[in-house]
Specification:
The complex is a heterodimer of chains A (120) and B (113). Chain A is 0% helix and 56% strand. In chain A, a hairpin with a 5-residue loop joins strand 4 and strand 5. Chain A has strands at residues 3-8, 11-12, 18-25, 33-39, 45-51, 58-59, 67-72, 77-82, 91-101, 104-110, 114-118. The N and C termini of chain A lie far apart (40 Å). In chain A, the strands form 2 sheets. In chain A, strands 2, 4, 5, 6, 9, 10 and 11 form a 7-stranded mixed sheet that branches. A 4-stranded antiparallel sheet of chain A has the order 1-3-8-7, with no helix packed on it. Chain B is an all-beta fold. Chain B is 0% helix and 51% strand. Chain B is built from no helices and 13 strands. In chain B, strands 2, 6, 7, 8, 11, 12 and 13 form a 7-stranded mixed sheet that branches. In chain B, a hairpin with a 4-residue loop joins strand 4 and strand 5. The chains are: A mainly beta (120), B mainly beta (113). The interface between A and B is medium-sized, with 23 and 24 residues.
């Protein structure tokens, strides 16, 4: 059974860089896209972007200039970096597996989420 | 961006009854290669990540009870929950996978009456 384990710093100051990693275990890594999504507490879901080892990276234009999504196939890990964070980046960040026909993807396995707070 | 608007924002249904959640898209989301709507439904229970229920508009994910049914066409889609159970109390989200950025509806909260 595929499992996604996430980790990263949970408390940041404005202007710092958010860095999260998602490790995949128990299933195929190379055959899928891997997606980052965030959820502001008490609010809805926002797609951040996704990546696979073989295809293009898709990113949300609202974040694109601050966003780096990378992949390490040798470790079955994907990483998310968001630079110059502000309080608006405070959210629960989820890593998820995506399937479908790129870019027509939906998320079938989700990590438990990492809470990131940005405060001075 | 494609905007998804869910209705109602919340609904209370008696145990064993039917709940219907609507999701309206700002444009058609029909994927021509398989002639299916690129519309996904998720369930999010309190304190948990979302869980995939329905993809391609009407295909139930493996392990999802057949009480959950996705339907609709054009720009109007529905998630129907028959024989509502206590464990169905959750937030439900639709998501379109037709265009980038992928977008979600604002969510519908289902409670027990």
């Amino acid at each position: 059974q595929v499992q996604l384990q996430q980790w990263g710093a949970g408390l940041l100051k404005p202007s710092e860089t958010l860095s999260l990693t998602c490790a995949v275990s128990g299933g195929s890594f190379s055959g899928y896209y891997w997606t980052w999504i965030r959820q502001v507490p008490g609010k809805g879901l926002e797609w951040i972007g996704d990546i696979s080892h073989s295809g293009p990276t898709n990113t949300n234009p609202s974040l694109k200039s601050r966003l780096v999504i990378s992949i390490d196939t040798s470790k079955s890990q994907v990483s998310l970096n968001v630079t110059s964070v502000t309080a608006a980046d405070t959210a629960i960040y989820y890593c998820a597996r995506a399937r479908g026909y790129n870019p027509h993807l939906y998320m079938d396995v989700w990590g438990k989420g990492t809470t990131v707070s940005v405060s001075s | 961006d494609i905007v998804l608007t869910q209705s109602p924002d919340s609904l209370a249904v008696s145990l064993g009854e039917r709940a219907i959640i609507n999701c309206k898209s700002s444009q058609t989301i029909l994927y021509g290669s398989n002639n299916k709507n690129c519309l996904t439904w998720y369930q999010q229970r309190p304190g948990q990540p979302p869980k995939l229920l329905i993809y391609w508009g009407s295909t139930r994910e493996s392990g999802i009870p057949d009480r959950f049914t996705g339907g609709g066409s054009g720009t109007d889609f529905t998630l129907t929950i028959d024989n509502l159970q206590a464990e169905d109390v959750a937030l439900y989200y639709c998501q379109q996978c037709y265009g980038l950025p992928r977008t979600f509806g604002q969510g519908t909260r289902v409670e027990i009456k």
